[in-house]
Amino acid sequence: MNRMECVNSLASIIQQEAAAATALLDALVREKQALAGNDAGALMDATDRKNSALVSIERTEAERRRLLQHLAVGALPQDMQALIESLARLQDSAPSTASIAANWKTIRATLPRCREINLTNGRIVAAMQRGVQQALDLLRGGRGTVATYGRSG
Predict the structure, then answer these.
(1) Which tens digits make up the pLDDT trace of 67-108?
(2) Contacts of 101 (CB under 8 A, 6+ apart)
(3) How far is 61 from 77, CA to CA, in rounded Å?
(4) N or C: which end of the chain has fewer CB within 10 A?
(5) pLDDT tens-digit profile of 111-147?
(6) Residue 114 phi/psi, 5° resolution?
(7) CA pair distance 151, 153, nearest whole angstrom
(8) How open is the CA angle 115-121-124, to the nearest 5 degrees?
(9) How far is the C-alpha of 124 from the C-alpha of 118, rounded, in Å?
(10) In contact, 119 and 32? CB cutoff 8 Å
(11) Pairwise CA distance, residues 130 & 132, whole Å
């Protein structure tokens, strides 16, 4: 595969990765809404969507890394940015470069948002689990383990 074919393949795979990141964000938002609404069916659907998006992200990231290695470029975000800047200086790669730059920007903006929402969803699930555990403790005849202020507040 020559350099231009590799760049075009990279543009395609980064477009797919950006779409998967956007799908992951959507799934996480749906998951948060399902958790807030206590909607088991919507939660199952959101979880399926989230898992599918994660599989796509893993696949496209592996392919992106392979293509970057073929181009003798590192896999760190700053290496990717340097590649985009060097491609921007070449006239024959302008359409691919614009696509790579736009989709890379989407990936870099979307994945941190996904992480934040995923952490929030995890906290919601943990709080729900504590509530269920307290209810079970009470049903089993215990006093329950209602959390009160501890040493750290």
Answers:
(1) 999 999 998 889 999 999 888 887 666 678 889 999 999 999
(2) 84, 88
(3) 12
(4) C
(5) 999 999 999 999 999 988 888 888 888 888 876 555 5
(6) -60, -45
(7) 6
(8) 145
(9) 10
(10) no
(11) 5
CA dist., res. 2 & res. 67, Å (int): 11
Q: Note whether 61 and 13 are within 8 A (CB).
A: no
pTM of the predicted model as reported, rounded to 2 decimal places = 0.82
123-150 burial, b at 16+ Cβ within 10 Å, e below that, comes to eeeeeeeeeeeeeeeeeeeeeeeeeeee
Cα distance between residue 45 and residue 42, in whole Å: 5
Q: What is the 3-state secondary structure (H, E, C) of 22-76?
A: HHHHHHHHHHHHHHHHCCHHHHHHHHHHHHHHHHHHHHHHHHHHHHHHHCCCCCC
- In angstroms, the CA 42 to CA 32 distance is 10
If you count them, how many residues does the chain have? 153
Q: At what angle do helices 40-70 and 3-37 cross, to 10 degrees?
A: 160
Which residue is associated with the tokens 């990936």? 107
